[in-house]
Write a structure and sequence with these properties.
By secondary structure, this protein is mainly α. It has 26 helices and 2 strands.
């Protein structure tokens, strides 16, 4: 704009800035603004008076002009009407640029009108700021759109850098209290549109694992927040992301934080152990005055042994039933009080069977049975017989592995999950020391013993996976060093048949028979690992011999009659899928995958689970509790195991969406679909329970050693959906509250006879009493 007007003259030189209408025809060759006429002028000038200023002007004589002579500028004889001394409140851009007086007329001031140039008035300071903010908003919306598209494809370091940058800009914004200093596009647009509430950096909700961090694709990766060396936390210890206890902990923390934030208060970080509903903080009573070699009467022992093999052995065949029952009858056929007794470890196995059966009876009847005895007495005897310092230092044998496995199961049945998890680790190490994780090619091992050892390994494998999910810790067993074939779908009583013997001894025949029964796992967690086939259960049927031509099986699939061994095969196959889900979605190796890859993995795992369900025989299809149906316990056990596998697969999507505004995820996306499926699976799990509570039926036809875990897992998912993603008064809210009330009723009945259920009920009621008012939940 500075070139649109000539420079203003100084006070000492003649006015030459007021031009006539033909001023545009003149050419200026002045050296610059404020310059004088040349010192040497060879032209003679005639005096003339300026009619405006009254000053004397110099005009050259006619016909005598020098090359360097200046051309005189004629002055307008008209008086300028806008030379008022009054000041205008706002000057145009051109006058402001030239620092000239402006008339302030709109739309064109007099100065611009006379000069024939375009006149414009700029915005005021406040208007400029508003326009700049609007421009920033538009830019940020563009940046946010691009960032949302690019973020899932970022590698780990880039994603962490983005998160750290967002957090740093938030601290700057809070400390300086200036909108313009918070230049991060994604954060600024959320602040300007009131999508987030800015809090000081010392607020409990300002941390990387809070809800704001759920955009991170690796939000399910474990980390520690507490000192587990403290006494009150040692009983529980570390709890990982795939445990429902950590889901409950995060839900309660977020809900409590929302309450105190609205009141302007601060909240101390709660302890994860506050969500612990197990009995790890209680000491196990060890009885001193006890006869280690004491035994119950044979009638009592028969009841306990039968209960164990009916209710526990099908899902946990750590004991060879046929061999053990033969030894048991021999033991009681002789005088139990005589000096002729089996070894201490066998006696420990028997006492652990008694302890587990008595614990189940106590849950069913809700009162001790003097005839059956005290389960702590049997457990103490077993511990002194085989779990002392000497036994733990000895090289393990098969009976020692069985003792340690049964001990882990007993601790689980008494809700000592932390101790059970540690004991199953010892049992697995003992089993590896015995080579039970590998196939046997020894001709010295008979077929019956060989298949029984395989089942011992898979029993430990399944219990380890269950405890891994309950407490959220990594499994103690791995696939890379396991070549044990999957169990055959025949009862132990049939192992002596020639056709079954051939199936046990010939791996190619075993593979040819079992491959159509098991599920192929098509998802590999790491490209550097083995191929998909090497990780699948089918590949474990005949490791190392897959290239051999398959031989005809002496038994066809059509001839396999549903039995508890076939149930165990399906349970092991589904356990592989659970293990795959944990390693894929929750292990630290998941940090190398973007959220898009995580979604694809969850979708693949979910499809594999559905494929497993499609293979399930009619005899094992899911139904509600009905003790009159055949394989009632096996049906319910498989249903709970299937539903908990689906929950573990889909839970990361539910957690991700729980911390985003409702509707933020597009309907039909993988994340939205998986989150909805997670909620539906939780409701399906609770629908297995009868509407009328019947504790006796619950403990008879369900996996009673883990039923509290399954109920709390499904209830936690429904609580997350209700409080984080549901509006009060909607149809969905009514359905969720109804399901949660059903779960609370069952927990209330279980709490009358189980201390762990009382704790679980207390944890749920604490959340509902503080935050359930807006949903008008009527819970006694």
């Amino acid at each position: 704009m500075s070139g649109q007007f000539p420079p203003r003259p100084s006070k000492t030189e003649p006015r030459s800035d007021i031009l006539g209408n033909d001023s545009a025809a003149f050419h200026y060759d002045w050296p610059g603004a404020g310059s004088r006429f040349p010192q040497q002028v060879s032209t003679e000038f005639q005096a003339n008076i300026d009619p405006v200023s009254g000053e004397e002007l110099l005009r050259p004589s006619s016909g005598e002009q020098s090359i360097n002579a200046k051309v005189p500028i004629p002055r307008s004889a008209q008086t300028i009407p806008w030379t008022s001394t009054s000041r205008t409140s706002r000057a145009c851009e051109n006058c402001r640029e030239q620092k000239a007086k402006c008339s302030g007329h709109r739309p064109t001031c007099n100065r611009c009108k006379d000069s024939g140039i375009r006149c414009s008035y700029g915005d005021r300071k406040k208007e400029k700021i508003i326009k700049e903010i609007d421009t920033l908003k538009a830019q940020i919306q563009t940046y946010e759109t691009v960032l949302r598209e690019v973020y899932p494809r970022l590698d780990l370091s880039s994603a962490q850098y983005v998160d750290q940058t967002i957090g740093g800009q938030l601290v700057r914004f809070w400390n300086l209290k200036s909108l313009l200093c918070c230049v991060n596009p994604l954060l600024l647009i959320k602040i300007l549109t009131n999508q987030i509430h800015v809090q000081p950096s010392n607020s409990p909700s300002f941390r990387s694992d809070s809800g704001a961090g759920m955009d991170h694709p690796l939000a399910t990766i474990d980390h520690t927040e507490e000192d587990f060396n403290r006494d009150e936390k040692q009983a529980l210890g570390f709890v990982g992301e795939h445990s429902e206890m950590i889901w409950l902990y995060r839900l309660k923390r977020d809900l409590d934080q929302d309450n105190v934030t609205s009141l302007g208060e601060t909240l101390d970080r709660p302890s994860i152990s506050s969500m612990n509903y197990f009995q790890g903080n209680m000491e196990i009573s060890v009885l001193d005055a006890i006869d280690v070699l004491g035994m119950p009467a044979q009638s009592t022992a028969d009841k306990l042994v039968d209960a164990f093999f009916d209710l526990v052995h099908p899902a946990f065949p750590v004991i060879g039933k046929r061999i053990f029952l033969s030894q048991y009858r021999t033991f009681y056929s002789n005088n139990p009080t005589s000096t002729s007794r089996p070894g201490k470890r066998w006696m420990a196995v028997l006492n652990l069977i008694f302890a587990i059966a008595v614990k189940h009876s106590l849950l069913v009847n809700n009162e001790p049975d003097e005839e059956l005895g005290n389960h702590l007495v049997y457990f103490t005897r077993a511990g002194r017989l085989s779990l002392g310092n000497v036994a733990l230092l000895d090289h393990p044998n098969l009976q020692q592995v069985q003792v340690e496995g049964l001990t882990a199961f007993y601790l689980l049945s008494t809700a000592q999950v932390n101790r059970s998890w540690r004991m199953i680790g010892i049992a697995i190490r003992s089993a590896v020391a015995m080579g039970l994780n590998l196939r046997s090619e020894s001709d010295d091992v008979p077929p019956l013993s060989r298949e029984s050892r395989y089942r011992v390994w898979w029993a430990l494998f399944m219990l380890d996976t269950l405890l891994c999910v309950m407490i959220g810790r990594p499994p103690s067993t791995g696939d890379n060093f396991c070549t044990t074939p999957l169990p055959i779908p025949f009862l132990e009583e049939d192992f002596e048949n020639e056709e079954v013997k051939q199936l046990i001894m010939d791996y190619s025949i075993r593979q040819n028979l079992l491959k159509p029964l098991v599920t192929q796992l098509h998802y590999s967690p790491q490209p550097s690992h083995q191929t998909i086939d090497s990780l699948s259960p089918a590949s474990l049927l005949a490791p190392g011999k897959a290239k051999q031509p398959a031989q005809a099986s002496p038994v066809s699939i059509e001839n396999i009659i549903p039995n508890i061994s076939l149930y165990f095969l399906y349970a092991v196959d589904l356990t592989f899928l659970m293990r795959e889900a944990i390693e894929t979605l929750y292990a630290p190796g998941a940090t190398r995958r973007s959220w898009l890859e995580m979604e694809n993995a969850m979708s693949t795992l979910n499809n594999t689970a559905d494929n497993w369900l499609s293979r399930l025989p009619t005899e094992f299809q899911f139904t509600k509790f009905d003790s009159d149906q055949p394989f009632a316990l096996q049906r319910v056990s498989l249903s709970f195991q299937f539903y908990t596998t689906k929950l573990v697969i889909a839970q990361p999507c539910l957690r991700r969406l729980a911390h985003q505004p409702v509707g933020d995820s597009p309907s039909g996306s993988i994340c939205d679909t998986m989150a909805s499926m997670c909620v539906q699976v939780a409701r399906d799990m609770l629908s297995l329970l009868p509407d009328e509570t019947d504790i006796h039926l619950l403990y008879q036809v369900s996996p009673w050693w883990g039923i509290l875990h399954y109920m709390m897992q499904s209830t936690t998912v429904l609580l997350i959906q209700l409080f984080m993603r549901t509006e009060p008064g909607t149809t969905e809210a009514v359905g969720l509250t109804k399901d949660i009330q059903k779960a609370i009723q069952w927990l209330g009945e279980m709490a009358k006879r189980d201390a762990s259920a009382r704790r679980a009920l207390s944890v749920c009621m604490d959340i509902l009493s503080q935050h359930g008012q807006k949903f008008a939940m009527e819970i006694d």
